[in-house]
Amino acid sequence: MSTSNVDVNQNKNMKTEDILCPLADNEEFDFSKLLEKPRLLNIERQRSLDDRSLSELATDLNSSRIFEPLDYICSPVGRRSGFNTPRSQTGFDPHPMVAEAWEALRRSLVYFRGQPVGTIAALDNSEENLNYDQVFVRDFVPSGLAFLMNGKPEIVKNFILKTLRLQSWEKKIDRFQLGEGVMPASFKVLHDPVRNNETLIADFGESAIGRVAPVDSGFWWIILLRAYTKSTGDTSLAELPECQKGMRLILSLCLSEGFDTFPTLLCADGCCMIDRRMGVYGYPIEIQALFFMALRCALLLLKQDDEGKEFMERIVKRLHALSYHMRSYFWLDLKQLNDIYRFKTEEYSHTALNKFNVMPDSLPEWIFDFMPVHGGYFIGNVSPARMDFRWFCLGNCISILSSLATPEQSTAIMDLIGSRWEELVGEMPLKVCYPAIETHEWRIITGCDPKNTRWSYHNGGSWPVLLWLLTAACVKTGRPQIAKRAIEIAETRLLKDHWPEYYDGKLGRYIGKQSRKAQTWSIAGYLVAKMMLEDPSHLGMVAIEEDKQMKPLLRRSNSWTL
Fold first, then answer.
1. Cβ neighbours for 182, distance < 8 A, ≥ 6 positions apart
2. Residue 389 near residue 367, CB atoms below 8 Å
3. pTM, whole model, 2 decimals?
């Protein structure tokens, strides 16, 4: 396979002929820009674009004044990332397993013509490869962040450019052609020993279980591009015409007009990290939070040429609508839960309180005990006559990092995690969702999926990769002690258990029944969490501060601040 030691070594002698199509208009771009040194900004005296409100930005777009793209605090390698966060006070010594983790991460590198272009999903040779020998876009994000934090940005740059080329490929499933902006779920390096060359094979969903295109891949790509720019201060990569076009193609898919009455994105089951049938079809929180984050990142990355300004105007409008919708209708705390419990149905007017006609009898029994007095979270899904009250970790953490959650809501989410530690963290962080679905509900929702049985895999399984997201959210909300506690729990077992993909059981006590060992994003997630806790300035790569002009006036409970 492409990731074997033999292939990696042979890459040094590969022919240089390029199987891929060249980047569009490649000859017209001055690649000397890639050599320019990053421009350092004065953190104390200059205002970052991250801090600018959308209202101010909209005013700028309609005026003759032009500001430089990416005019925000950069974080060259080896320097603070610029996010306004105090340094860690935890002061713990490096754990012995950190060195082991770095060695495992380096072994996972995938090479294409002698250049590292990503990390393999898992190096577990005890199981059939399936697609674990591929480079997944979402899986590479924690690996990319780890390399950026460790001063190895070239790997991330190679990955960004290679996946950008794959985006330009024709994408068909049976006789249907996918949208031009769709990013691959994964790709694989194939070595031809006879011709002594290598080619890339991409999967856009045509080989995936369920044949679902990855909605999240494009969002993660934009987020990683912004992290690279923030970390290195190198704006030239994002300013490449090809990167600008790639972003616009992704945004065109998401901002297109149709029959939607909501600003959220309508998705199929299996379109994100939860890549099997788990009842997340509709408007899943993971996609909405990533969508919001990607829009905010794109706003910082797009150039102010004619095409860029048009997209920026559309982004500003969508962000206002999306933030209001999510904060109003996806948010749940004790007061809102009580309101839903007392909802009237069949209301027909603009003044209806129960706008989605949710039946109070559909409230699950567990939610009444799960909801603490002080705390709240964004529920899993909201659509006509349906609310999915399950807790989804990734969506809520991204909501904090992107500032989709207000500061009060961010605090409430952390309060919930602290109050429900046994349920959400237990003996191995971190539950991908809570609670598990079981019995008749499991049969109906999953189709009797043997991999998603109760408290296993995506059905309430515990995923160590989520450590980095929890840690970032903890640092942003000033709760590093929560992250430190979770990391210490993980350190008792992760290395000893050979870095499993996920754990099973209500407390996460057992290695998953189909869990791969040497799972790369479990390794990278741990490293990113450790480095971010030790140096909170790294948070600037993955977090954006709140835009106060976007905050709606919610007539909701403020119980989380009591």
1. 167, 171, 204, 205, 213, 214, 217, 218, 253
2. yes
3. 0.84
Per-position b or e across 492-524, b if 16+ CB within 10 A of its CB: ebbbebbbbbbbbbbbbebbbeebbbbbbbbbb
Which DSSP category does 330 fall into?
I
> What span, in angstroms and rounded, lies between the C-alpha atoms of 553 and 263?
18
d(CA 358, CA 254): 27
Contacts with 71 (C-beta within 8 Å, 6 or more apart), sequence order:
41, 48, 49
Please tell me the distance from the alpha carbon of residue 38 to that of residue 79, in angstroms, as a whole number: 12
Residue 115 pairs with which residues in a beta bridge? 112
pLDDT digits (tens, 9 = 90+) for 503-526: 999 999 999 999 999 999 999 999
Asked whether 205 and 212 are in contact (CB, 8 A), the reply is yes
Mean pLDDT over the full length of the chain = 85
Please give the C-alpha separations between residue 441 and each of 6, 217, 268, 434, 453, in angstroms, as whole numbers: 47, 29, 19, 14, 11
What's the rounded Cα separation, in Å, for the pair 441 and 434?
Answer: 14
Angle formed by the axes of helices 241-255 and 306-325, nearest 10°: 40
| Total Cβ atoms within 10 A of residue 368 | 12
Check if the beta carbon of residue 142 is closer than 8 Å to that of residue 164. no
Q: Take residue 197 and report the two structure tokens written for it.
A: 């060359």
Q: What is the DSSP letter of 94?
A: P
CA distance 387 to 369: 17
- Tallying the residues shown for the chain, one arrives at 562
3-state secondary structure of 418: helix
- Model confidence over 335-353: pLDDT tens digits? 999 999 999 888 887 888 8
**Residue 464: closest CA among 148, 218, 137, 122:** 122
pLDDT at 6: 36
- Nearest-Å Rg of the Cα atoms of the chain is 23
Spatial contact of 187 and 163, defined as CB atoms under 8 Å apart: yes
Q: How far apart are the first and last CA of the chain?
A: 57
Both tokens of 45, joined, read 């005296």
Residue 201 sits at φ, ψ, to 5 deg, of: -120, 125
Is residue 288 scored above 80 in pLDDT? yes
126 pLDDT band, cuts 50/70/90, is: confident
CB 470 within 8 A of CB 397: yes
In order of 219, 387, 432, 466, the CA distances from 397 in angstroms are 15, 20, 11, 9
* Residue pair 153/98 in contact by the 8 Å Cβ criterion: no
Distant-in-sequence contacts of 92-95, Cβ < 8 A, 24+ apart: 92/484, 92/534, 94/530, 95/491, 95/530
Interhelix angle 153-167/137-149, rounded to 10 degrees, is 150
Residue 558, both tokens: 């403020």
Contact 159, 148 (CB under 8 A): no
List of residues 6+ apart from 140 with CB closer than 8 A: 118, 119, 159, 224, 521
What gap in Å lies between CA 56 and CA 202, rounded to an integer?
41
Q: Is the peptide bond before 500 cis (omega within 30 degrees of 0)?
A: no
